[in-house]
Amino acid sequence: MSQNTFQTHHGMVDILPEESGKWHYLEALIRETAREFHFGEIRTPVLEPTELIARGIGQLTDIVSKEMFSFSRGETNYVLRPECTAPVARAYVQHHLDQKGGAQKLFYIGPMFRAERPQKGRQRQFHQFGAELIGTDAPIADVEIIRFMMRIYEKIGLTKTTLMINSVGDPESRADYRNALQEYFRPNLNNLSDISRQRFEANPMRILDSKEEEDQPFIENAPLITDYLNEACSRHYAHVKQYLTDSGIPFVENPRLVRGLDYYTQTAFELISSDLGSQDALGGGGRYDLLIEEIGGRPTPAVGFACGMERLMIACEALGIPLGEAPSLDVYIVCRGEGAQRWAMDRITDIRKQGLSCTMDFSGKSIKAQLKDANRQNSRFAIIVGDSELEQQKFTFRNMQESTEEALPFDEIVGKLNSAFDK
Ligand code: HAM
């Protein structure tokens, strides 16, 4: 390839028409499920204030410390959103959604950006679908969010998954836990990785999220948050587990589950698939009761989830789960000569007005090449037009799958098309 051609940036991919059918299918399924759960769609800008993301997600997280695509113009700092919870929380405060009465139920689908090292299932521009239930601290809301997420996978037929849950406590429980962690890690501080040493003072819980090899033996035996939960957190966690069981949703408790974002309080969960390789999280979420206050709003409890669209597709492919039908063409008009082309330009509109997809050749190919093109595009029917057909006003109507043909007036062809497609 010439050196002068352009390529997408590393970790960013084009979605071509053969693939976009899957996206339409999934997006429609997610929107339909959101309708059933009565969540309204929110669309926020892809650029957000850097300070919102840094404060919302946490300075010491990988996302904020090294994975943000950010830039400034004049005095303003912009970041390409790495996730959508902080943006939705910003929108909730900005538009006074608390005054609408009752909890707000919002969902989104869209691109997110993280400057991670690309690998299978990990991109720099990827897509999430997610939902946020804002304005209630009831454990039943946590379960409603998990039910919404699980229902989407159930409808798709991707049920070979594991739901892992944990409680990461509230500030009171975490203060005790933080002391316990510091006490535990202190004797081995010099053996920890640089990044974990940095986290020791500011946020020792982040050490548990370290991927560095030298940290693993120490993390393995670290104290567990679940032993430090206060009464309120223990009760909340017990209720969540009870309601999950009542809802028939199997789960595995994982007291070492620490999410990669700092805003979580109490419930945290991840949905894992063993068909994804090393990037095994299909989605995750939890409660974030302090985020809205942290970004300038009134104290407002909330809970949500987000899942990766690309990872969902990878898992479906590994398991042979089809995602919708390949896009197909209903009718291809094959033209011989200029008169036929003019005729086709008129009639193509009539066919499209019936709600059918219809195309023709735009580059003056031979009849044989046009029929080949119709085949390649998986067209169900072709209409073949040349001078003699125009003279007799009878056109060759070809069923491409059955390789049968008949000569018919255009009106009759439309009638046949309508009955073939049940119009
Ligand atoms: P997260 O765990 O950072 O949570 O991301 C959720 C999901 O997005 C992951 O489980 C994964 O499927 C997908 N994902 C993340 N990074 C990438 C990447 N680089 N390439 C491909 N897929 C990726 C959040 O974003 C939270 N906002 C979830 C949440 C909503 N918590 C409360 N409400």
Can you put this structure into words, describing what you see?
The protein has 2 domains: 17-170 and 230-319, 2-Layer Sandwich (BirA Bifunctional Protein, domain 2), CATH 3.30.930; 329-420, Rossmann fold (3-Layer(aba) Sandwich). The protein has helices at residues 17-37, 50-57, 62-66, 85-94, 139-156, 171-185, 194-202, 216-220, 231-246, 291-294, 309-319, 338-353, 367-376, 387-392, 410-420; strands at residues 40-41, 47-49, 70-73, 76-80, 104-113, 125-134, 162-167, 252-253, 267-272, 281-287, 302-308, 329-335, 358-360, 379-385, 395-399, 404-408. 39% of the residues lie in helices and 21% in strands. It has 423 residues and is α+β, with helices and mostly antiparallel strands. Helix 1 packs antiparallel against helix 5 and helix 5 (139-156) packs parallel to helix 9. Strand 15 (395-399) and strand 16 form a beta hairpin. Histidyl-adenosine monophosphate is lined by residues 83-85, 114, 116, 121-123, 126, 128, 130, 132, 260-261, 281-286, 288, 304-308, 310-311.
